[in-house]
Structures are given as C-alpha cells and as structure tokens.
Amino acid sequence: MITASLESARTVLSEVFGYDSFRGEQEAVVEHVVAGGDAVVLMPTGGGKSLCYQIPSIVRPGTGVVVSPLIALMADQVAALENLGVRAAYLNSTLTLDRVHEVERQFLDGELDVLYMAPERLVLPRTLDLLGRGSIALFAIDEAHCVSQWGHDFRSDYLGLHVLADRFPGVPRIALTATATRATHAELTERLSLQDARHFVASFDRPNIEYRIVPKDGPRAQLIDFITTEHPGHCGIVYCLSRRGVDQLAEALNARGIAALPYHAGLPQEVRAGNQARFLREDGLVMVATIAFGMGIDKPDVRFVAHVDLPRSVEGYYQETGRAGRDGLPSTAWMAYGLGDVVSQRRLIESGEGDEAFKRRSMSHLDAMLALCETVDCRRVQLLSYFGEDSGPCGNCDTCKNPPATWDATVEVQKLLSALIRLDRERDQRFGSGQVIDVLRGKAGDRSRASRHEELSVWGVGADLSEAQWRTVIRQALARSLVVSHGDYGVLVPGPAGGPVLRGEERVFLREDPAAKKAGRSRRGGPQGRAAAPIELEPADAALFEQLRSWRAEQAKEQGVPAYVVFNDATLYGVVEAKPASIGELGGISGVGQKKLDRYGEAVLGIVSGAGTSDAEAPDREPG
Ligand code: ADP
Ligand code: ZN
Asked: Which atom of ligand 1 is nearest to the CA of 50?
C-alpha cells in the first residue's frame, strides 16, 4: 500500500528534483522519516544521502534543520536548493548580523523548508532557544562520523548534539555518513542517542567507478598520460602525500596545458578557499591536493580521482576515490604505486608519533592497502569485503579487464632472502633495495666494490632479472611481509613470512607487472586541453554537449553558483541523448524539475534545435 506521505514524497521527487525514482534505500528512509521516525543512514559517497533529509524537510510541516561541519560549502548547498525552488537558508559566521536576523525571522514565520547550520552554532543556548520557538520538521546530522573520537574527522562540537534528543523529543533525527566501519557506526549511534532509530545500511559499491592501480614508472608522466588520453578537459582530483609534492605536480600539470590548482594546509587560508571555490565553479579543473581537501565536496562531475602516493588505509582510499562520479557517469579511480611507497610509508609509521598500539594499527592499515594493490583478484571484491560486503568479480576494474599473469617467484624470493641473510651475517651489513639489487645482479657500484661483495656467494645470482624486475619482486615481497624494511634508509631484512619460503615449504606466486600501456588508449578522443563528454558520443552529439556546457557555464557565472547547480552532467547527457523538441519532453529528463523547466526550458530547447539544424546542413556530414 502506498501511504499518503510516500505519495507526496514521490511527487516532490519528480516535480522538485526532476527524478523519476528513488535510488536504493532512499525510499525506505524517506518514508520512515516523513512518518516521524529516527534514522541512521550509511550510504557511500554519491549514494544520494541529501534527498533522504531534503524531501522529508519539504514534505513535513516546519523547517528541516541540517547540521553540517562544512561552513564553506553551505552557500552552494543553499544555492542548489534555491535553484530547485526549495526555500533554503543557512546560519553561520560568514553572515552579517542583519542577515542573521532576517533568516531567524524567516524560520520563525515558517518560510523555510531547509536551514543549514554548523554544530557549534546549533548548541548555543541562543540557537536552541530560537529553535524552541519555531516549528521543526526534523534534524539531519550530516557527516555524522565526525562525532567519533577515534575517527579521522573528529569534531568536538558534534559531541554536544546529543542534547537534541532531550530538548526536542518529538522531532525526528536522521544521522548520515559515508564512513562504513562497524566501530564508527556503533559509536555514532550511541553518542547521538540514536539507539532506538532504524538503521539503513546501503551497499557501498560504486559500480560506475573503474578502479585501476598501476606500477609506478615515472608517476608524473604516467599521470599526464592518463589525464590527456582518458580525461582531457575533465574535472578531477589528484592526491599527493606532501605539500611540496602538491605544489610541484600542480605546476607540472599546468606546464602541460592541464589546468590545475594546488590545495594543502600550508597555503594561506584565502588561497585555499579561492582554489576550492574555483574548483567547484569552473568546469574541467584538476585539484592537486593533500588529504586536507575533499570532505563534503559534493561536486557531482568529478571524473577521476588519482593517487600518486599510496594512501595510508583502505578507508581513506575509498573515501577519496568515492569523490569521483557522484552523478553516476563513468569515472576512474587511478593510482600509481611502487616500491618507494612501501618503504617510505613504513618509515613514516616507525618514526611517527603515537604509542606501539597505534603504530601496529597503522601498519595493519598499510598492509590492507598493500594487499589491495597486489591482489590478482577483482579489486572491487577486495574493497567491498573490507567493508564486510560479499560480491562477485565486477568487470569494471583493471584486474577484471586484464587479469594479471602470475609467475612462480619462489626461487627469486629465496635468492633475495639469502642475500639479505648473508650480507647481514658475513658483512654485518644491511642495505636498502638499490644496493641489494646491485648485489643480486652482480653490479659493482663504488660502495659495493669497497666492501668486496664480489666475494659473497650470492653475488650475481640474480643477473637473469633486470633491475626493474627485481624492484617489482621486492615491492611484492614487502607487501606480503616476506621481507620488511626498517629505518631512515629503508634497510631490508627477512620478514615473518619469509621462513617457510626459504626452507622450500611454500611457493610464492607474484603478479607480473603489465608493461605500461602507453599507446592505443585514446578511447574518448578529443584534442588535448579540450573538454570531452564523459561518455563516448558521436561527433555531432559531442558538439551539442559542448554547447550546452558553455551555456551552463554562462548561467552559473551570472548567478555566481557552481555549474552543476544549473544542471549536472548527467542531465546534460540526458538532453543530448533525448534531443527534446518540447517543454514536455524536456521535463521528462532526469534532473529537470518544474522550477528549472520554467527557468531554463526555452534556452535549452533553443540550443538543441539550433544544433539540430546546423547539424543537418553541415557539409562534413555528407559521406565521402
Ligand atoms: P551523497 O550526499 O550521498 O554523497 P548526494 O546526495 O550528493 O550524495 O547525491 C549524489 C548525486 O546523485 C547528486 O548529483 C544527486 O542529485 C543524484 N541523485 C540522488 N538521488 C537521485 C535519484 N533518486 N535519481 C537520480 N539522481 C539522484
Ligand atoms: Zn573487478
């Protein structure tokens, strides 16, 4: 049976948001909250959490109060709702006193559907008093994992939010997060007093994201090649560990005609804010950033997320890559990873702050990340199982598309382990990977000659492998704890898993690194520096997509809002595909609600019909 409240929720979905159906758990959440229930919602980034509280805010009497830690993004969130014809506002420290009073009056007079504010503001006695005098549809606690003291985004102000349960017992509360671990889930439930809430846990799969991890081989050139052949003119995020790395990489991309901006905690606040605003507003920019960038960025058309350094944990990697493709269109999570990453990450953990337990935890996070990098099975299966979800091979990751060959490396690993043992025993020396490879390959460098390694029995026993091949052996041996690296110089010693291999009790099969595919990848064409549609389009359709995109850019500029607030890429793509000839047809496209139809309908139809005629008359469409 369809309840009246579900009926009105569906009407809002189609008329206001322009979508024909709810996704996954959305409908169940919306129905539950509209009916006055509390909810805890775990959905991946891009899963569609916003609708879960926005629609009940509109359907229920009173204002939906949304708690969000991200003051810098509130203005855009409100602009997006206003563009849909939803009455929205925010209260934060950037407003003038006059504006604050105006918003407060609107709230008290019942003129707002949605009101955003930061937690520190909400818990002020003055704000609680204000809220007590108005009518509240619900409280939505976004980024609810921020209440977790052990998590990576802890905000002490979130701890005060449990007062809502006591102060507003009749008002439904909905907590939402994209952090999936069981520990976070339990902790936020308790700290926000949501023990009696219904829990909605969506699948964390992001099927439109292709996962790809390549062996590092000149990461800067690899990245540039990846962007220019697969994502020319697309918006993307590149994550680097160090500030210096960010600055240098952003410069290198710009020098190659890829418009890129840096973002890290070492930049002055106004530069960071300016770069973030440009990234959100302009089409086709690449943000090169440390992990300081990204939380709450809900730009839907990020087409790729690249990592040029190994992330510290699978959780972090999944959060970061999840920022690609919120609009559901094909997107790529690309990473270059190499031996140096393993050595430097271990060194960082060893020399870092924190007690032994913390270091052990960090090491196990790193090991899980390495296992993902070195797997010969589907990457998605491995990722999802990390979050407790079973799945089958996905067909949309590198190992599914090009199953890696494996080879029996037992003898090579034995040679490596023996070399480490002999160097240690007979020479009392421990070396980093470079010198160990020199010994194995019998390459007499200055330093090794001085210590007369030629006399070692292991000297030159690995001459049949190239230096690059040895590096991949060592990298994978590190990932499997066959060897371990220590200290500032990353000296190698036999690891806990090495014994059985050395004694011949276990065989080792390693991944064969595919030769870096440099050519034949330009699936999506498009000259360098020009934008290309996220999906392969016929030339005429690609031209129409470009026209719509530049029209959208003008609109966004006029209004001072991000382009996706006008229409997102998925909607533009829908227009290109459907080529609507009437307002009615345009209104049927996903993402075109009533308000946008009224406001932009004629302009879009004009562009579509214009493209149609010039297209038909274009001489280059004639065969021959
Ligand atoms: P989250 O907050 O979970 O990361 P969002 O709420 O930002 O995700 O939604 C991601 C994208 O999906 C947005 O562009 C949104 O407009 C779109 N979206 C959400 N729900 C639907 C739906 N039912 N049908 C079509 N598009 C949707
Ligand atoms: Zn797969």
From this structure: 6
Going from the Cα of 208 to the center of ligand 1, the distance in angstroms, rounded, reads 14
User: Separation of 308 CA from ligand 2 center, angstroms?
Assistant: 21
Q: Which ligand is nearest to the CA of 378?
A: 2
Predicted local confidence at residue 107, as pLDDT: 98
User: Which of the listed CATH numbers 3.20.20.150, 2.60.40.1120, 3.30.450.20, 1.10.10.10 matches domain 406-511?
Assistant: 1.10.10.10
Atom 25 (ligand 1) nearest CA: 19
pLDDT digits (tens, 9 = 90+) for 384-442: 988 888 999 999 999 999 988 888 999 999 999 999 998 888 777 888 888 899 999 98
Q: Is the model's pTM score more than 0.85?
A: no
The residue nearest atom 20 of ligand 1, judged by CA position, is: 48
Domain ranges of the chain: 4-201, 209-337+375-401, 406-511, 539-609
Among the bound ligands, the one closest to the CA of 298: 1
In the prediction, which pLDDT does 520 show? 34
CATH topology of domain 209-337+375-401: Rossmann fold (3.40.50)
DSSP 116: E
Can you tell me the distance from the alpha carbon of 236 to that of 306, in angstroms, rounded to the nearest whole number? 8
Q: Give the model's pLDDT for residue 551.
A: 94
Q: Which residues line ligand 1 (CB under 6 A)?
A: 19, 22-23, 26, 43, 45-51, 298, 300, 326-327, 568, 590
Question: How much is the pLDDT for 178?
Answer: 86
209-337+375-401 shares the fold of 4-201: yes
For residue 327, the ligand closest to its alpha carbon is: 1
Given CATH 1.10.150.80, say whether it is the number of domain 539-609. Answer: yes
Task: Give the Å distance between the CA of 373 and the centre of ligand 2.
Answer: 13
SS (H, E, C) 348-416: HHHHCCCCHHHHHHHHHHHHHHHHHHHCCCCHHHHHHHHCCCCCCCCCCEHHHHCCCCEEECHHHHHHH
Q: 547 is written with which tokens?
A: 């026209």
Contact 266, 243 (CB under 8 A): yes
Q: What is the CATH number of domain 4-201?
A: 3.40.50.300
Question: Per-residue DSSP letters for 503-516?
Answer: TTSS--EEEPPPPP
Give the model's pLDDT for residue 70.
Answer: 84
What is the signed CA dihedral for 583, 588, 593, 596, rounded to 10 degrees? -30
Distance 54 CA to ligand 2 centre (A): 34
Ranges of residues in the chain whose predicted pLDDT is under 70: 1, 150-152, 180, 444-454, 514-534, 611-624
Distance 235 CA to ligand 1 centre (A): 18
Beta bridge partners of 115: 65, 89
Give the position, in ligand 1's atom list, of the atom nearest the Cα of 17.
Answer: 16
